[in-house]
Amino acid sequence: MINHNELRNQFPVLKTKVYDKTLVYLDSAATTLKPQNVIDSVNKYYAQTTANVHRGLHFLSELNTDLYEGTRDQVQKLINAKTRQEVIFTKGTTESINLVAASYVRNFLNNGDEILITQMEHHSNIVPWQLAAEAIGAKVRAIPIDDNGDVIMEEYKKLLGPKTKFVSVAYISNALGTVNPVKEMIKLAHHVGAKFMVDAAQAIAHRPVDVQDLDCDFLAFSSHKMFGPTAAGILYGKEALLEQMPPYQGGGDMIDVVTIEKTTYNALPFKFEAGTPAIASVIGLGEAIKFLTSLKFADLMEYEKSILTYGTAKLQDIPGVRLIGTAVEKSCILSFVVKGLHPHDIASITDKEGVALRTGHHCTQPLMKRMNVTATVRASLGIYNTKQDIDLLIQAITKAIKILS
Question: What number does CATH give the domain 4-30+296-404?
Fold first, then answer.
């Protein structure tokens, strides 16, 4: 069992007052709050141990190199990668996807090949594939979803064929909370010879992610979505694929030997890690993994399911509220609209009640079009949220409706 009083005390921002009201933070899909151990690790780096990694032979450099590379080992264990060489540090999910688009798709796909994504993807899992496809003459095609927000698997199977060379799908939708059947989708893609990338940004803090069990070719996630600092992320790739791929960027640390005539490149994973990295953020990510793994995923998932169920029922009791995203399997996201009211107006009023929500298209404009809305109000929950937070959300929405109506 999770002791929520003890857990919430690890997040100092929850003590913040907003307009003299207790903060109710319901925007974890945008970024999670940070526990004290993560904050302390970042502060310690800048206050006591500042130095670059890999290059220095002095004490502080070697200390930080050990911490930095220790995080790589933690990530390997967290996602069950075969080797640490398969764990690449990036700035975040977006850069990880762009790296694969630039280094794999542009080099190994050809004119006429097809890339499949779903209609629910975040823009960062759409635009990089479009840019790569335009450069090589490939085509991006969308896997349809139904009115509940579930992938229509029969349509996915119809799209798969000899032209399909790459598929990229979110494990969990940031705007709907839909948990996609990525393991089954990967198996189907591999059957036609396509490579598969998983955007795990919304999954990594909510459920176990095992790359060997999934058998994905690539997987990406961000530190700041899993209680860590911003500016750090992970690209996992199967070692054989990463070995074939050319570097994404040139500069320090990714080189072996440089001459004016030619450069040879460093071994994995450093071939893809040009320049001074976000050292403090990566060290903080290591601490975030310690926090996350101190929780049992079974307990975490059971608890989050309980507050999602509670929140869903409470929202559906409010006249005029319509949930957007009612998939068979969902994670902790409640997106909704209120008849006759604009989402921005609702959030402006709930903000004055101390309730932090997100509104807009959530970087999923094709999804909004599919669901016949321009924007939604999104309450995204985390392990630190409680049923009391849901009650305060319902009070704030009820007040907003009364004022705006």
Answer: 3.90.1150.10
